[in-house]
Specification:
Length: about 230
């Protein structure tokens, strides 16, 4: 930071609405971390060294950075890949993230998942990664879905997203179908990228509204288990 450049004055606004689970207990549906104001000079300074990767000339770099700042990315799954991507997107200057994951961190996650640590064992992955992402610069809006993705909330999660990252476990079929069904109904979301690590290999798939639906690609009976 250049001498004399003040840090932005930010306040975390945290709120949620709840839904009633079948067991009668309330469940956290969504939590929002949002800056109360944006400091443009601070933002320009913090993304200055990454704009080089956004184009060959200054004008292209600038316009691409504006697009990123005006973009919303949904990340379904905040484990190994999803958690790392969330933090990287914040550093790149993406304006808003939606992060969904119902799981909690376990000891075995520490070796590979960026949000896993001694102090975070037992904590919700989406909430933990969301807070870590927000704390990077406190100028990114973060929506946290601690209940993960379901047929009830998939449309809300996808709504407004320019890009969705499907980081759900490849064996979680029903939730994947819900996410992709909502994507195909969306008029805003352009693409779903799905990346899975299986054994020593990584698989990256790109889905558009014109491409094969994941239901046809998986082709199992709903609610079945492929593992």
């Amino acid at each position: 930071m250049r001498p004399g450049l003040a840090r932005p004055s930010m306040v975390t606004l945290s709120f949620s609405h709840t839904v009633q689970q079948p067991n009668g207990r309330p469940s956290m549906a969504k939590r929002v971390l949002s800056p109360t104001q944006l400091d443009n000079e601070f933002f320009k300074e913090r993304v200055n060294r990454t704009q080089t990767f956004l184009g060959e000339c200054i004008a292209t770099q600038h316009s691409s950075q504006i697009k990123l700042r005006q973009s919303t990315v949904g990340i379904a799954g905040a484990g190994g890949i999803g958690g790392a991507i969330a933090l990287r997107l914040c550093r790149l200057g993406v304006g808003a993230l939606k992060i969904a994951d119902p799981d909690v961190f376990e000891i075995s996650n520490i070796n590979r998942q960026i949000g896993a640590s001694y102090d975070n064992i037992g904590k919700n992955k989406a909430s933990t990664v969301g807070q870590m992402a927000f704390d990077i610069a406190k100028d990114t809006r973060i929506e946290v879905y601690e209940d993960g993705i379901s047929h009830k909330n998939a449309a809300e999660f996808v709504a407004g997203c320019d890009l969705v990252l499907d980081q759900l476990d490849f064996s979680v079929i029903d939730e994947k179908f819900a996410l992709h069904d909502a994507f195909h109904e969306s008029e805003v979301t352009h693409t779903i990228l799905a990346c899975s690590v299986i054994g020593w290999s990584a698989h990256l798939y790109k889905f558009t509204r014109q491409s094969m639906h994941i239901r046809k690609w998986y082709d199992p009976v709903d609610h079945s288990n492929i593992v």
